């Protein structure tokens, strides 16, 4: 059985080593901030960013939380909840403050905070240079999740949640109760808060592996903590509905197979991540690292979730290193923070220690100045691949207001601009009961009859399609008039 006896205390770090460690973590965060500022526009290319901001704006304006759909005409009046309301409000506030540049900066801030926390927790056990370098690599591996959507606010939370729970298990202590308010915050930010329950369960298994049944009182505290997790998660505007809504996707609704981020991992499309996975398992095999059965189960679980749905890439690449860092440090002392702390500081580290305040202040000033310059000089905005900016301007000049059929990727911008959608990114709760399946079938070979049926059923008078929408030939065959076209969008109108 793979098992080790972990130390009960974190390695002591003397003051200069602690300062050097902090600076390395700040440097890692600064490197990530610079990289993301240079690529800020890429953070705004998800079509769902549009409707998340609009929902947040509507919540702020109405001071009410939606319970039915008011954004589509196909499912108007159906039950729908903004279960990620707080994340949507934060995105809306950023947009209202500084347009899309504000949204990008807020997204960057969350990623940078995650990088800092990640490197900080890793450097408790691993030498700071290794922790900072590894964190930057891991942050690059999960770059597909760096988009302006509510889940971005949960990345720092999940790092802290995992680190402190497994630390409590390792030290044979009760889980910190201050984590419960953090979970409550998580539950109002994004639906992935239910992963918090699962992570707590794995940390509890790690404790059980260590103490077995020798301390019933401690085990009872962990069981009580586990029971409190779903209870504090009910402290949101929708109560138990927010928890139940996560299960509709977790068990797979009909729309899941058609949405890119919910598809299984494909090595041909994610070569960088495949190489990283192979490297991880090669290292585990040749090193014979002993991690215990509870952590081995956690590794398998996070890998399964990632391979099943690529959107959860961060669960594996962020959390597994945090959980295994102590075993690496104890079984390979040359890589440990304890060994590093006992060594004489090299020239670079001595510079960091001597110039701690200046380095820390310098990084902060540079980031503030870079952010200000970014907003003033390099305003960013979503591409027309999701905004359909010129096509919507044309539709406005023609007063096109009747029911439309839209490509999935234009649903967000339509909601943002106050146009009722045929379909949009809220498929976790809406566009079900055969609707999403029919939408997908319309674009297949032989899908023209399905398209014709939907056009007639919903009395559709115009269509806004992406330039590569596979239904475009069918509209030509049905005699619809192509009223507008550019490199990103096509507008068809019914020829009455």
UniProtKB/TrEMBL annotation:
Parts of the chain that traverse the membrane: 21-44, 100-117, 148-166, 178-205, 217-235, 276-306, 312-329, 359-381
Keyword annotations from UniProtKB, A to Z: Membrane, Transmembrane, Transmembrane helix
Protein name (database record): Glycosyltransferase RgtA/B/C/D-like domain-containing protein
Organism encoding this protein: Mesorhizobium mediterraneum
């Amino acid at each position: 059985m793979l098992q080790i006896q972990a130390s009960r205390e974190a390695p002591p770090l003397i003051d200069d080593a602690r300062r050097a460690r902090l600076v390395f973590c700040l440097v890692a965060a600064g490197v990530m901030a610079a990289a993301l500022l240079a690529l800020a526009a890429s953070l705004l290319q998800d079509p769902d960013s549009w409707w998340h901001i609009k929902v947040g704006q509507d919540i702020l304006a109405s001071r009410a939380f939606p319970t039915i759909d008011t954004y589509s005409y196909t499912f108007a009046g159906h039950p729908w909840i903004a279960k990620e309301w707080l994340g949507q409000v934060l995105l809306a506030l950023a947009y209202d403050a500084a347009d899309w540049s504000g949204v990008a900066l807020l997204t960057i801030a969350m990623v940078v905070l995650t990088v800092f926390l990640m490197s900080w927790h890793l450097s408790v056990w691993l030498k700071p240079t290794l922790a900072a370098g590894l964190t930057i690599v891991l942050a690059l591996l999960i770059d597909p999740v760096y988009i302006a959507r509510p889940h971005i606010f949960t990345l720092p939370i999940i790092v802290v949640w995992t680190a402190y729970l497994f630390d409590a298990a390792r030290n044979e202590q009760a889980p910190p109760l201050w984590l419960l308010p953090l979970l409550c915050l998580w539950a109002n930010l994004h639906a992935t808060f239910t992963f918090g329950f699962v992570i707590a369960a794995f940390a509890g298994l790690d404790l059980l592996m260590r103490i077995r049944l020798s301390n019933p009182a401690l085990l009872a505290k962990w069981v009580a903590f586990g029971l409190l997790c779903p209870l504090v998660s009910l402290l949101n505007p929708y109560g138990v509905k927010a928890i139940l809504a996560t299960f509709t996707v977790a068990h797979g609704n009909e729309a899941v197979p058609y949405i890119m981020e919910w598809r299984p991992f494909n090595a041909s499309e994610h070569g960088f991540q495949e190489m990283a996975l192979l490297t991880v398992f090669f290292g585990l095999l040749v090193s014979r690292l002993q991690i215990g059965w509870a952590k081995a189960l956690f590794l398998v679980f996070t890998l399964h979730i990632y391979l099943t749905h690529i959107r959860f890439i961060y669960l594996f690449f962020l959390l597994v290193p945090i959980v295994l860092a102590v075993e690496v440090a104890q079984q390979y002392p040359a890589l440990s923070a304890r060994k590093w702390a006992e060594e004489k500081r090299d020239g670079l580290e001595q510079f960091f220690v001597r110039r701690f305040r200046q380095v820390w202040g310098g990084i902060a000033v540079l980031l503030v100045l870079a952010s200000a310059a970014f907003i003033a000089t390099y305003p960013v905005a979503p591409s027309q691949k999701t905004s359909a900016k010129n096509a919507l301007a044309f539709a406005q000049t023609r007063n096109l207001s009747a029911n439309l059929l839209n490509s999935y990727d234009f649903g967000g911008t339509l909601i943002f601009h106050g146009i009722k959608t045929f379909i949009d990114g809220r498929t976790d709760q809406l566009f079900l009961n055969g609707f999403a399946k029919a939408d997908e079938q319309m674009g297949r070979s032989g899908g023209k009859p399905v398209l014709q049926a939907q056009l007639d059923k919903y009395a559709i008078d115009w269509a806004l399609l992406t330039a590569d929408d596979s239904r475009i030939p069918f509209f030509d065959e049905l005699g619809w008039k192509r009223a507008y076209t550019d490199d990103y969008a096509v507008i068809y109108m019914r020829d009455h």
